[in-house]
Amino acid sequence: MQVNEKTAEGLVRAYEITVPASDIDAKVTEKLETHRKDFSMKGFRKGKAPISLMRKMFGQSVMGETIQEMVDGSVRDLIAEKDHRPAMNPDIKMVNEDFKEGDDLEVAVNYELLPDVPEVDFSSIKLEKLVVEVGDDAVSESLDRLAQDAVDYETKDGAAEDKDQIIIDFTGRIDGEAFEGGAAEDFPLVLGSGQFIPGFEEQLIGAKAGDEKDVEVSFPDDYGNEQLKGQAAVFETKIKEVKAPKAAEINDDLAKRFGSDDLDALKATIRERVAAEYNQASRAHLKRKLLDALDTKVDFELPPTMLDIEAKQVAHQLWHEENPEVEGHDHPEIEPTEEHTRIAKRRVMLGLLLADLGSKNNIQVQEEELRNAIMQQARQYPGQERQFFDFIRENQNAMNEIQAPLFEDKVIDHILEQAVLEEKSVTKEELESALEALETDAV
Predict the structure, then answer these.
(1) pLDDT tens-digit series, residues 14-48
(2) 1-10 long-range CB contacts below 8 Å, 24 or more apart?
């Protein structure tokens, strides 16, 4: 193998590798000899077929296999010899595209190196950690919301209003004919819930118990049932009872509805949950402030292709945020601006810094941590937890998406252990304002 260096500028490397035809031919012959031991052919004993005949029969496929192996091996040897750390998979192309048996193999190899990440004195970083105490008022607010969510309904006199529950019998007809699935008895419907198709609930506001009313509506054009899409229908409706919403009383019975033994136990659970929410918000604020500080302390050359790819992803992401009505990717290519490139530079630089720090300090995501994270996400799919877990385990890209933030958080913790942290007591509102201020300059 002969190597000719074409480019060595910054992090960019380009080489031309030449593999002599004699080396290729020797490798092909070696492979054919290996296969010949088990090859049987009429007129020859097993393993005794002429190598020339085997070359004629299988030489083309063996040649293709050999070239691929020699190219891959040559690139690996080149990278190992140079002691390089490519930032991405090398770009490999055959120079002599009209290559034929007996020719030397010429291959162009291009890749970019990972940069040397400078050391950072994390002890010089000073940060404020915002701390919110969980007061009794916060617990009371959460209890009130639970009581509202656990709303009961009690019969009332008079007309139905928005948020009231009505008990109805109904039969739907299209062109005078009842249709399947269009009827029910003693159906509890909360007005304003959007449970029925548009226009239905609004027409029942003002109805009283004992009223009978024809509700005229049209099924939406995107309705799930093909037979009903866009169809005009009349629902013969009888209002049997009108009920007003009533928040549940805050007592031991309410606590038991939410899985606690009594009200005190429910309050303790709420206090823990609210504290966890405050801590999570505080952590998000602290992490962002840390990344901002790191951004001012490091500046090193970045792999051009990696930066370009990230800038395009940023441009694409922000374009969709500004054009939420456009679904999918059927739109013109979004050209990155200077601002997109600035954001991408920060992301790539900080990403390389954290990855380098994690590698140097042997920071790893443990199997149990990864399993717990997968199971936590699997709970979002009740009844399909096992299938979700198996899918993640069998899909490396999906696994990486779960593992990456776990790894990043462990590296962040490693840095925070060395940084100087000063706790600052703030109110819930002040913490929310601090987070909103960061969102206005989100990266």
Answers:
(1) 999 999 999 988 888 787 777 666 666 666 666 66
(2) 1/74, 1/77, 3/78, 6/108, 7/110, 10/301
Q: SS3 for 312-379, per residue?
A: HHHHHHHHHHHCCCCCCCCCCCCCCCHHHHHHHHHHHHHHHHHHHHHHHCCCCCCHHHHHHHHHHHHC
Residue 351 carries which side chain, given as an amino acid letter? G
Structural domains in the chain, CATH included, are: 2-112 (3.30.70.1050), 122-137+261-439 (1.10.3120.10), 151-246 (3.10.50.40)
If DSSP codes are grouped into helix, strand and coil, which group holds residue 118? Answer: coil
Distance CA 68, CA 46 (A): 29
In DSSP terms, which residues pair with 18 in a beta bridge? 2, 106
Residue with tokens 């099924």: 219
Dihedral (Cα; 247, 253, 258, 260), 10-degree rounding: 150
How far apart (Å, rounded) are the C-alpha atoms in residues 226 and 230? 9
This prediction's pTM = 0.74
- Scanning the structure block, which residue is given the tokens 């399993």? 371
**Among 120, 109, 189, 188, residue whose Cα is nearest residue 361:** 120
Min mean pLDDT across 149-158, 263-272, 360-369 is at 149-158
Of 303, 411, 372, which Cα lies nearest the Cα of 85? 303
Distances (CA, A) of 299 to 117, 119, 249, 303, 319: 9, 11, 59, 13, 28
Q: How far from the centroid of its chain's Cα atoms is residue 195's Cα?
A: 30
- Are the C-beta atoms of 51 and 58 separated by less than 8 Å? no
Structural Rg of the chain based on CA atoms: 34
What are 183-193's pLDDT values in tens digits? 999 999 999 99
Task: For residue 397, give the amino acid letter.
Answer: N
